[in-house]
Specification:
The C terminus is likely disordered. The chain is mainly α and about 350 residues long. It contains 15 helices and two strands.
Length: about 350
């Protein structure tokens, strides 16, 4: 019972990272495809302003995933990171380069430096979700079992390639939807239409890839395919489809807050559907939740620590997102800084 509860927490943490981190990666995707210096100036300006307050905190969910994996399910952690160390290592390198590129491109004084850091940020934003998706595909295709040696065949099969493409398309979709709302918040009407068209286009691509995934998993991942077409897996697939239709309808109207909710619903439902499709396995047909679980005392303490962390961290993260969505975290402009400096000087003179 305790192992099942921790497995649910793990799935929810993966879902949170897919939605929050996916939005950040998607912003990087549109940064990469924005075009040359002049053509891409406005979209990249919006990406910078939208991401700056929250891009670091989204990795909190990834930390939750890793801690729960290695503490609650050590056999799963060892097996996955041994068999697929290369794609996971490439994903980690991508995360580091992505963060460094985003942090350094704005303060860089030279144009060449800004272009270099911007390119690193943008390329890593596409590479990282692809390798993470490929690793998930390797798990879903039953190529990873306890004792499996590292091999390129594990994460380069049909399911891995399709899952990697789905991961990139998903991030592009989330990024475009959220940037549409950010364009309205920053009063940039030209960018509202710009990102709305890209949100609709990426959703169309994601829909096509979802259909392709169905055919691929039918042949390459029969257990997962059966889970996606029966029981709770099918229920969440239907919910994802309904959320996609709602998102399309809202995007065709004036995009507001609800379009973000439905977009997150698409991704969250799809991730949960995958988790339900694998039940009761963490590694399909080879490692169940019960077999992978750590000692009962470890799981008990992990549940207590997780509860404390959720009580402390989740409200803080939600508050951060709320403040950002309401424009409370926007950085001061040069004009505002000069006005503030002038006020201070005046106060000194008056005193």
């Amino acid at each position: 019972m305790m192992a099942d509860l921790i497995a649910v927490v793990l799935l929810l943490a993966v879902t949170a990272y897919a939605c929050a981190g996916g939005t950040d990666y998607g912003a990087g995707f549109w940064d990469l495809t924005a075009g040359g210096t002049e053509r891409g100036r406005r979209p990249r300006w919006l990406v910078d302003h939208a991401m700056a307050p929250v891009w670091e905190v989204n990795n909190v969910w990834l930390i939750f995933v890793l801690v729960i994996m290695w503490t609650g399910f050590p056999v799963l952690f060892q097996t996955v990171f041994t068999a697929m160390w290369l794609p996971l290592a490439l994903a980690v390198v991508g995360m580091v380069l992505r963060g460094a590129g985003f942090a350094l491109r704005k303060p860089s004084r030279q144009l060449a430096g800004r272009r270099l850091y911007g390119a690193v940020f943008a390329v890593a934003s596409v590479v990282t979700p692809f390798f993470l998706g490929a690793a998930v595909g390797g798990v879903a295709s039953e190529r990873v079992t306890p004792g499996t040696e590292a091999s390129a065949d594990i994460w380069t099969g049909p399911t891995s390639i399709v899952f990697g493409l789905v991961a990139v398309a998903t991030t592009a979709f989330l990024g475009a939807v959220f940037l549409t709302g950010d364009a309205r918040r920053f009063e940039a009407p030209d960018l509202v239409g710009y990102f709305r068209r890209r949100a609709l286009g990426s959703l169309a691509v994601l829909t096509v890839l979802a259909v392709v995934t169905g055919f691929v998993t039918h042949e390459d991942s029969p257990y997962v395919w059966h889970g996606l077409t029966h029981g709770l897996g099918l229920v969440f697939v239907i919910v994802a489809g309904a959320a996609a239709l709602a998102t399309t309808w809202l995007l065709l109207r004036t995009p507001g807050t609800w379009v973000r909710v439905t977009a997150v619903g698409v991704v969250a439902s799809a991730v949960v559907a995958w988790g339900m499709a694998q039940r009761p396995y963490l590694l399909p047909t080879s490692l169940t939740v019960a077999d992978a679980a750590g000692a009962p005392s470890t799981l008990t303490w992990l549940s207590i620590v997780t509860l404390v962390a959720l009580v402390v961290v989740v409200p803080a993260v939600v508050l951060l997102y709320w403040l950002d969505a309401h424009g409370e975290l926007a950085e001061l402009s040069d004009a505002e800084l000069r006005r503030g400096s002038g006020t201070g000087d005046g106060a000194v003179r008056d005193s």
